[in-house]
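hey
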Protein backbone atom coordinates (compact mmCIF):
# COMPACT_ATOMS: atom_id res chain seq x y z
CA UNK A 1 0.00 0.00 0.00
CA UNK A 2 1.02 3.60 -0.43
CA UNK A 3 2.02 5.41 2.75
CA UNK A 4 -0.97 7.76 2.53
CA UNK A 5 -3.29 4.74 2.19
CA UNK A 6 -1.79 3.07 5.27
CA UNK A 7 -2.28 6.29 7.22
CA UNK A 8 -5.95 6.35 6.17
CA UNK A 9 -6.63 2.67 6.86
CA UNK A 10 -9.37 2.12 9.45
CA UNK A 11 -10.24 -0.97 11.44
CA UNK A 12 -13.61 -1.07 9.70
CA UNK A 13 -11.65 -1.78 6.49
CA UNK A 14 -10.30 -5.04 7.92
CA UNK A 15 -12.42 -8.12 7.25
CA UNK A 16 -11.11 -10.70 9.70
CA UNK A 17 -13.28 -13.49 8.25
CA UNK A 18 -12.19 -12.98 4.64
CA UNK A 19 -8.59 -12.06 5.60
CA UNK A 20 -8.78 -8.86 3.58
CA UNK A 21 -8.29 -5.14 3.89
CA UNK A 22 -10.15 -2.65 1.74
CA UNK A 23 -8.26 0.40 0.57
CA UNK A 24 -10.93 3.10 0.53
CA UNK A 25 -9.13 6.30 1.46
CA UNK A 26 -5.86 8.11 1.91
CA UNK A 27 -4.85 10.96 4.19
CA UNK A 28 -3.40 14.24 3.05
CA UNK A 29 -1.72 16.50 5.61
CA UNK A 30 -1.54 20.27 5.38
CA UNK A 31 0.77 22.70 7.15
CA UNK A 32 -0.53 23.58 10.58
CA UNK A 33 -1.35 19.98 11.54
CA UNK A 34 -4.62 19.79 9.62
CA UNK A 35 -5.51 16.81 7.46
CA UNK A 36 -8.26 15.44 5.28
CA UNK A 37 -9.41 12.03 4.15
CA UNK A 38 -9.50 11.63 0.37
CA UNK A 39 -10.32 8.85 -2.07
CA UNK A 40 -7.32 6.80 -3.23
CA UNK A 41 -4.94 8.17 -5.85
CA UNK A 42 -6.85 6.58 -8.75
CA UNK A 43 -10.08 4.66 -9.31
CA UNK A 44 -8.09 1.40 -9.21
CA UNK A 45 -6.51 2.58 -5.97
CA UNK A 46 -9.73 1.56 -4.25
CA UNK A 47 -9.10 -2.15 -3.90
CA UNK A 48 -9.26 -5.22 -1.69
CA UNK A 49 -6.03 -6.90 -0.66
CA UNK A 50 -5.93 -10.44 0.69
CA UNK A 51 -3.60 -10.89 3.66
CA UNK A 52 -1.69 -14.00 4.65
CA UNK A 53 -2.35 -15.71 7.97
CA UNK A 54 0.83 -14.38 9.61
CA UNK A 55 0.18 -10.82 8.47
CA UNK A 56 -3.35 -11.07 9.84
CA UNK A 57 -2.03 -12.36 13.17
CA UNK A 58 0.41 -9.43 13.40
CA UNK A 59 -2.51 -7.10 12.70
CA UNK A 60 -4.54 -8.74 15.49
CA UNK A 61 -1.63 -8.25 17.92
CA UNK A 62 -1.30 -4.63 16.81
CA UNK A 63 -5.02 -4.08 17.49
CA UNK A 64 -4.67 -5.52 21.03
CA UNK A 65 -1.67 -3.28 21.75
CA UNK A 66 -3.54 -0.29 20.36
CA UNK A 67 -6.56 -1.02 22.58
CA UNK A 68 -4.28 -0.86 25.64
CA UNK A 69 -2.89 2.48 24.41
CA UNK A 70 -6.43 3.83 23.90
CA UNK A 71 -7.45 2.75 27.39
CA UNK A 72 -4.43 4.44 28.96
CA UNK A 73 -4.94 7.64 26.93
CA UNK A 74 -8.57 7.99 28.02
CA UNK A 75 -10.15 11.27 26.95
CA UNK A 76 -6.92 12.41 25.29
CA UNK A 77 -7.49 9.88 22.48
CA UNK A 78 -9.14 11.08 19.27
CA UNK A 79 -11.19 8.11 18.11
CA UNK A 80 -10.94 7.93 14.32
CA UNK A 81 -10.72 4.10 14.17
CA UNK A 82 -7.31 4.32 12.44
CA UNK A 83 -5.14 1.22 12.20
CA UNK A 84 -1.90 3.25 12.32
CA UNK A 85 -2.65 6.46 14.24
CA UNK A 86 -0.42 8.88 16.06
CA UNK A 87 -0.08 8.52 19.83
CA UNK A 88 -3.20 10.67 20.16
CA UNK A 89 -5.39 8.76 17.69
CA UNK A 90 -5.08 11.25 14.83
CA UNK A 91 -3.48 10.44 11.45
CA UNK A 92 0.25 9.97 11.86
CA UNK A 93 2.42 12.30 9.78
CA UNK A 94 4.89 11.19 7.12
CA UNK A 95 7.75 12.82 9.07
CA UNK A 96 6.92 10.73 12.16
CA UNK A 97 6.82 7.59 10.02
CA UNK A 98 10.19 8.50 8.48
CA UNK A 99 11.75 9.09 11.89
CA UNK A 100 10.45 5.81 13.35
CA UNK A 101 11.40 3.90 10.20
CA UNK A 102 14.97 5.23 10.29
CA UNK A 103 15.28 4.14 13.93
CA UNK A 104 14.06 0.63 13.07
CA UNK A 105 16.51 0.37 10.18
CA UNK A 106 19.42 1.54 12.35
CA UNK A 107 18.50 -0.81 15.21
CA UNK A 108 18.31 -3.70 12.74
CA UNK A 109 21.62 -2.84 11.10
CA UNK A 110 19.93 -2.36 7.74
CA UNK A 111 20.91 0.26 5.17
CA UNK A 112 18.94 3.48 4.87
CA UNK A 113 16.02 3.20 2.46
CA UNK A 114 12.88 5.22 1.97
CA UNK A 115 9.61 3.95 3.43
CA UNK A 116 8.25 3.87 -0.13
CA UNK A 117 11.00 1.39 -1.01
CA UNK A 118 9.04 -1.21 0.97
CA UNK A 119 6.34 -0.97 -1.71
CA UNK A 120 8.95 -1.47 -4.44
CA UNK A 121 10.43 -4.41 -2.54
CA UNK A 122 7.03 -6.07 -2.22
CA UNK A 123 6.37 -5.66 -5.95
CA UNK A 124 9.85 -6.96 -6.82
CA UNK A 125 9.48 -10.01 -4.57
CA UNK A 126 6.09 -10.91 -6.02
CA UNK A 127 7.28 -10.57 -9.62
CA UNK A 128 10.52 -12.46 -8.98
CA UNK A 129 8.52 -15.30 -7.47
CA UNK A 130 6.21 -15.67 -10.46
CA UNK A 131 3.14 -13.75 -9.32
CA UNK A 132 1.45 -12.57 -12.55
CA UNK A 133 1.82 -8.88 -13.42
CA UNK A 134 -1.96 -8.43 -13.39
CA UNK A 135 -2.17 -9.59 -9.75
CA UNK A 136 0.79 -7.43 -8.67
CA UNK A 137 -0.72 -4.44 -10.48
CA UNK A 138 -4.07 -4.88 -8.71
CA UNK A 139 -2.41 -5.25 -5.29
CA UNK A 140 -0.40 -2.07 -5.88
CA UNK A 141 -3.49 -0.17 -7.06
CA UNK A 142 -2.01 0.70 -10.45
CA UNK A 143 -4.56 1.89 -12.98
CA UNK A 144 -3.09 -0.39 -15.69
CA UNK A 145 -0.75 -3.40 -15.68
CA UNK A 146 1.40 -1.49 -18.17
CA UNK A 147 2.37 0.88 -15.34
CA UNK A 148 3.60 -2.10 -13.32
CA UNK A 149 5.52 -3.40 -16.34
CA UNK A 150 7.04 0.03 -17.02
CA UNK A 151 8.27 0.36 -13.44
CA UNK A 152 9.14 -3.26 -12.63
CA UNK A 153 9.42 -5.03 -15.99
CA UNK A 154 13.17 -5.42 -15.70
CA UNK A 155 12.60 -7.58 -12.63
CA UNK A 156 10.33 -10.11 -14.31
CA UNK A 157 12.35 -13.28 -14.80
CA UNK A 158 12.98 -14.22 -18.41
CA UNK A 159 11.24 -17.43 -19.35
CA UNK A 160 12.44 -17.46 -22.95
CA UNK A 161 13.88 -20.98 -22.74
CA UNK A 162 10.66 -22.28 -21.23
CA UNK A 163 8.64 -20.60 -24.01
CA UNK A 164 10.92 -22.07 -26.69
CA UNK A 165 10.56 -25.58 -25.23
CA UNK A 166 6.77 -25.23 -25.04
CA UNK A 167 6.58 -24.18 -28.70
CA UNK A 168 8.82 -27.08 -29.71
CA UNK A 169 6.63 -29.51 -27.80
CA UNK A 170 3.40 -28.14 -29.27
CA UNK A 171 4.58 -27.90 -32.85
CA UNK A 172 6.98 -30.82 -33.29
CA UNK A 173 5.51 -33.73 -31.32
CA UNK A 174 8.12 -33.04 -28.70
Amino acid sequence: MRQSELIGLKWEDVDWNLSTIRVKRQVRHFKGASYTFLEPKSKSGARTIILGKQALEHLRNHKREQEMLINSAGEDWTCLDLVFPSGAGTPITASNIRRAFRKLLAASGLPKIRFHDLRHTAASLMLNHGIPVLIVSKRLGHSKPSITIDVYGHLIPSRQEEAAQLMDNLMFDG
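Residues 163 and 169 are 10 Å apart (CA to CA). The mean pLDDT is 92.
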